[in-house]
Amino acid sequence: MGAEVALDRAMTDGRPLGEPWESTFEKFYFEHYARVVSVLFRLTSSRTEAEDLANEVFWKLYRRQSLPNPDGNVAGWVYRTATNLGIDVLRKNARRRKHEHEAARLADQSHSTTGPLDEVLRAEKRQTVRRALAELKPVQAQALILRASGFSYHEMAEALGVKRVSIGTLLLRAEQAFRKQYRARSGEEES
Fold first, then answer.
1. CATH code for 116-186?
2. If 0-12 CB within 10 Å is exposed, 13-18 middle and 19+ buried, where does residue 124 land?
3. In angstroms, how far is CA 124 from the centroid of its own chain?
4. Ranges of each domain in the chain
């Protein structure tokens, strides 16, 4: 309990610790790591994911070493951060499963009515799409690929290193550029 009190005091008052930060952090880490992993395991049902998230939580705490904490409850902050990260992972996994399920359903539907000619036409279309994407600015191609993969605007902004508010404009311009490139490669007329 001593490490938690020292951490609480350091984060609340912003005063230097009586012992080195690494030592205090290490004691706190060993006191709480197993329980944080346990909480995250209950949320995610994956030991590996729970351990990865727990490491992320403690890394965030380590980086905050002297930032003030208004409520002075470091353990509370750790568990709150852990559960928030766990819930974010659950939401992300639910979105991914939904998109995968929909893609599998569409693939099953399309395979049931395909013949050799359909397969050739689909392969040509995929090749045309790839060539059109290759002609776009890299950030535009990446934005379209991430969107097609089910990423949210927030996730896309993080992955591309742009502001979230600019994602809509980026996607719109990328779609316009893609249509132009696709039509040029497929011989379609502008509509």
1. 1.10.10.10
2. exposed
3. 32
4. 2-92, 116-186
| Residue 28 CB-density burial (10 A; 0-12 exposed, 13-18 middle, 19+ buried) | buried
Global pTM reads: 0.47
Closest CA to 147 of 136, 127, 139: 139
DSSP summary character for residue 64: T
Structure tokens at 74: 């470091």
3-state secondary structure of 46: coil
Query: Is the domain covering 2-92 a CATH 1.10.1740 domain?
Result: yes
Q: What is the pLDDT along the chain (191 residues), one digit of tens a residue?
A: 555 555 555 554 443 445 677 888 888 889 999 999 998 998 888 899 999 999 999 998 888 775 435 556 787 888 888 999 999 988 888 888 888 888 888 877 766 666 788 788 888 888 888 888 888 898 999 999 888 888 889 888 888 889 999 999 999 999 999 999 999 887 765 54
Dihedral of alpha carbons 107, 111, 113, 119, sign: positive
Angle, helix 138-148 to helix 167-186, in steps of 10 degrees: 100
**For residues 160 and 142, is the Cβ–Cβ distance under 8 A?**
yes
